[in-house]
């Protein structure tokens, strides 16, 4: 990195103070894993090459529809958001990608924006379109929906916006478009469930036609909210049907918070992979709905099981298997930098634990119907404390062994509170 927001000396000083203890814990874990036939360094190398993108919108304090409680020093434009993303990647070293959102992140010069990100050691991941809210000066309202609206001019506007996002994405080096629409209904009979889907497909296929040959388009399904009776792309079935109809470059995106309670998300992952349509993830956690809580904070076991399916998928990848990993969270009560560092560590930890499952033993137990052995094989990996591996990977990549300690002692947020303009009150963004 050429432009680091946190003092490299501070990181080095902190790391020097805890390196001996870390080595001791790493070596001890290495011996333990060795007895299970696992080379700790191989897992560490996997972790070092793992990356999850952060959402530009996640750098600010989110809110509920009741209120938003701003944080002094939170970013108010894409330049400040990038600076915060740079802190997250500098300390954690597992979040080189930033997933931007338009029009929230619009600027005049996208080449300069790309250079600005690159100077921090960051790249842009999937671009996100926004046809779920009206913007000042917009010709047609999205009150009737967007890609599925009954109003032709509104559908065209939504198509044009998505195509514009692709154009911006080309300039900033992105290779994917994520489309989430809020289209749906609140009343039975409000719209025809079949014809809404037809209109969506016709409009989405026009967006798809504008996709460069080396891009993918990801359809993000969501069961409810903002629509509370029906959503046009409500579930993985609708998403899969749409992706299959649109074409090879169209895939499905799984946001962990967009399902009915208790749904077996890891099985959805396996099914979408089977269909060759697993495009990417929005990681977060939830207790009740699309809560957008920190990844793994409520149900870390589910996150592990999702990664277990991903490792199985890696072993039999199929054509074009290359899922995008992204965080999509709303940080209402924490400093977003701390939440994303914690989440990225949790996500990488689930990846590491899934990577150390004894696959041969698991498959043999499954094939032999040895239920308890199959379960314990997974459970042994899940119960392994991989924090020394994650910390060692960070240290070797130049990040912080104790990212929270370094971040707090850097007083970064306090400094930004002096420099940045204050954020207004008001409801947050869902
Ligand atoms: C909405 O619930 C989705 O999760 C989307 O990914 C949305 O585009 C994102 O949260 C930005 O608002
Ligand atoms: Zn999402
Ligand atoms: Zn969501």
Notes on the protein architecture:
The chain has 430 residues and is an alpha/beta fold. It has one domain (8-419): Divalent-metal-dependent TIM barrel enzymes (TIM Barrel), CATH 3.20.20. Helix content is 47%, strand content 9%. It has helices spanning 8-35, 40-48, 78-92, 110-119, 152-172, 193-209, 236-246, 265-274, 300-315, 336-355, 359-367, 371-382, 387-396, 403-410, 412-419; strands spanning 54-55, 97-99, 123-124, 127-128, 176-179, 184-185, 216-220, 230-231, 250-255, 278-283, 324-327. It has a 6-stranded parallel sheet. Helix 3 (78-92) packs across helix 10 (336-355). The radius of gyration is 22 Å and the shape is globular. One zinc ion (ZN) binds next to loops.
What is the topology?
Elements (H helix, E strand, L loop, with lengths): L7 H28 L4 H9 L5 E2 L22 H15 L4 E3 L10 H10 L3 E2 L2 E2 L23 H21 L3 E4 L4 E2 L7 H17 L6 E5 L9 E2 L4 H11 L3 E6 L9 H10 L3 E6 L16 H16 L8 E4 L8 H20 L3 H9 L3 H12 L4 H10 L6 H8 L1 H8 L11
Parallel strand pairs: 1-2, 2-3, 4-5, 5-7, 7-9, 9-10, 10-11
Antiparallel strand pairs: 6-8
Helix pairs in contact: 1-13, 2-10, 2-13, 3-10, 5-6, 8-9, 9-10, 11-12
The structure holds D-allose and zinc ion (2 copies).
The site of D-allose (AOS) has 11 residues, from loops.
């Amino acid at each position: 990195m050429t432009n680091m927001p946190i003092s490299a000396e501070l990181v080095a000083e902190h790391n020097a103070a805890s390196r001996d203890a870390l080595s001791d814990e790493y070596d001890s874990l290495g011996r333990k894993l060795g007895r299970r036939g696992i080379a700790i360094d191989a897992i560490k190398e996997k972790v070092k090459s793992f990356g999850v993108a952060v959402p530009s919108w996640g750098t600010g304090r989110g809110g509920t529809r009741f209120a938003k409680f701003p944080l002094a020093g939170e970013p108010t434009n894409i330049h400040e958001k990038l600076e915060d993303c740079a802190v997250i990647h500098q300390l954690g070293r597992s979040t080189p990608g930033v997933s931007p959102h338009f029009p929230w992140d619009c600027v005049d010069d996208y080449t300069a924006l790309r250079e600005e990100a690159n100077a921090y050691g960051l790249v842009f991941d999937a671009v996100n379109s926004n046809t779920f809210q009206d913007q000042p000066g917009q010709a047609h309202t999205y009150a009737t929906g967007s890609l599925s609206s009954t109003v032709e001019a509104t559908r065209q506007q939504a198509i044009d916006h998505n195509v514009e996002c692709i154009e911006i994405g080309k300039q900033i080096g992105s290779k994917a478009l994520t489309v989430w629409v809020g289209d749906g209904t609140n009343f039975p009979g409000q719209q025809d469930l079949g014809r809404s889907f037809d209109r969506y497909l016709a409009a989405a296929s026009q967006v798809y036609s504008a996709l460069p040959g080396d891009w993918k388009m990801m359809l993000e399904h969501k069961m409810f909210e903002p629509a509370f009776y029906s959503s046009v792309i409500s579930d993985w079935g609708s998403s899969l049907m749409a992706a299959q109809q649109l074409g090879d470059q169209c895939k499905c995106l799984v946001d962990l918070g967009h399902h009915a309670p208790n749904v077996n998300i890891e099985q959805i992952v396996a099914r979408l992979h089977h269909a060759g349509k697993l495009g990417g993830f929005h990681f977060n956690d939830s207790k009740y709905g699309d809560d957008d809580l920190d990844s793994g904070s409520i149900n870390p076991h589910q996150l592990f099981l999702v990664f277990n399916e991903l490792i199985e998928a890696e072993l039999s990848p199929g054509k074009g298997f290359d899922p995008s990993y992204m965080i999509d969270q709303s940080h209402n009560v924490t400093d977003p930098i701390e939440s994303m560092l914690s989440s990225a560590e949790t996500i990488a930890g689930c990846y590491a634990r899934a990577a150390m499952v004894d696959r041969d033993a698991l498959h043999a137990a499954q094939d032999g119907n040895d239920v308890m052995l199959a379960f314990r094989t997974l459970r042994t990996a899940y119960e392994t404390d991989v924090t020394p591996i994650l910390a060692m990977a960070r240290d070797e990549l130049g990040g912080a062994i104790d990212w929270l300690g370094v971040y707090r002692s850097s007083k970064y947020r306090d400094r930004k509170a002096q420099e940045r303009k204050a954020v207004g009150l008001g409801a947050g963004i869902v």
